Amino acid sequence: MTDTYIHPRPRLPFWLRCLIAPLEWSIALIILFEEWGWEPMQRLMVRLARLPAMAALERRIASLPPGGALVAFALPTLLMLPVNVFGVWLVGQGQALAGPLVIIAAKLISTTLIARVFTLTRPVLMELRWFAHFYAGWKRWEAALVEPVRASWLWRTGRELRGRWRAWRAARAPAAGDARRG
Asked: Are 61 and 70 in contact (CB under 8 A)?
């Protein structure tokens, strides 16, 4: 049982539910994709933080006051905006592969940086009452949006297959210290 109450959505007409459902599922899948990538991206940034210059930068970011933390949190998105515009321009120029690749690369870089900056600044950002309120509302909305996807047969089957795949791979991996060399 969660400690937050999610207000039930008023019953919408059938035709409106048919229009909204694909949009909701698309947004939920985007959110789940970002969550899926959040941890690997965080691990990458932690590895990069072993570099002295990155470690110093992360210490500075983590020590920012709330206003500075908010700017640092927004900066990756703002820096990638011209790159996204460039990707859209490429599409407009007929570059059907290069344009979307630029946009996807910008999204991955931006999400990676946002994830790391948020991890570093979250305690300070939560000192901003409006941000903490917005974040709590976002988490409730996100949970309500992705719950039907996670409850779906396809999602549950995919998780089951992934678990079996990992178990199979672990069983096939040589034991640590196994000195067999073929």
From this structure: no
Q: What is the pLDDT of residues 130-168, one digit of tens each?
A: 999 999 998 898 888 888 888 888 888 888 998 899 899
What's the CA gap between 58 and 44, in Å, rounded? Answer: 14
The residue whose two tokens read 């509302």 is 137
Q: Flag whether the pTM goes above 0.85.
A: no
Do residues 124 and 69 make contact, with C-beta atoms less than 8 angstroms apart? yes
CA angle 118, 107, 100 (to 5 degrees): 175
- Residue 144's nearest CA partner among 24, 20, 22 is 24
Q: 111, 41 in Cβ contact below 8 A?
A: yes
The tokens describing 102, both together, are 């630029």
Spell out where 70-162 has E strands: none
Rounded to an integer, what distance in angstroms lies between the CA atom of residue 175 and that of residue 182? 15
